[in-house]
Design a protein that fits this description.
single chain, 380 residues, six-stranded mixed sheet, four-stranded antiparallel sheet
Amino acid sequence: MHVQGFRNLSLSLLILIALSLLIAPTAFSHDINMGGSKWYLGKNHIQSAIELDSSLFTQIRGIKDGGYDLDSLTNVQLRELTTGIIQPYINEKLSVFVNDQSYPVKVDRLERDGALWTIWLGVSDISFDQPYKVEIDYRLLFEETSNNHVNIAFFYFSDANDDWVFDHNQPDLQNTFEPGNTVREFSVESKTLWSSIYTFLVLGIKHILIGFDHIAFLVALIVIGLPFKEVIKIITSFTVAHSITLLLAAMQVISLNSRFIESVIALSICYIALENMLAKQVNYRWLAAFVFGLIHGFGFAGVLQEFIAGKSNLVLSVVSFNVGVELGQLIIFFILLPVLHLLRNKFETRRITAYASIVIFILGLIWLVERVFNLQMVSF
């Protein structure tokens, strides 16, 4: 291949890799700043528990500036943090309306369990007239995370006078608070099945689109020049494998170290890329997608495990999530396949495979070093 042809191929490959990465917003793989919340609507009050891991909780405005050592807070400092930082922040970022009337939201207490912080909230003296309308405006952490925060909310309706009674029953309603969808309005007659499906369907799509390592792995699988039918088999095999390990991890049947899982995911990318470059003939790519998909599925499990409300809706959530993953993968491939087709009309398939695999191998190696040695070398 002469120099000009080499330059054209290199430029085309750069465009291909850029398309595979830039179809999603800039974020580190799996780092989508996710939180969860549970909302209990009793006879005349609302209670809520907003759950954030330590990395998110410390981003709340005022915590870092206040110089708090969250690992060794005294009772006095905890009360000061609750009343002086969290309560004003909640006043600004969270609003609750019942039948169009605004109600103050009080921070009852802060709790910490390992790396998980829970902000307990209460709204009292509410006049719930049947049927009633509730509107929640959630704007926590959007500014601090550059609009990269998602909160999965579960709602429970009851006529009881008692306090929080969450016991992993099926939620009456689910919702995802995120930039562009900060307000949730509902009534007690709200239906739950389609809401639950939609919540995890969208989450699955989003998670695969910002999972740059997943995208690199899938591109490595198909860049060798496969017919469309084989590509569909690979996508489906990868998703089925996700479903198995995600379900097992969510049920806590299997629990693996997250750092180990992320390292093996990076290693799988390197392996497929090397196979592309060194093997004369590659067979049974769908099987490789399934085997490594089992490992990649654990990467998703760490995101969802804290936010699936009990085993009664776990299967529905996992199935919906994986359908979303499948749709997200189809979006990726419907963008990439025409680009690959155009490249093959101009360049030899073997050269396209070789150069693309070199780029993917380098990315996988960087991720592997980062995850094994707990470094950050790139921002995606």
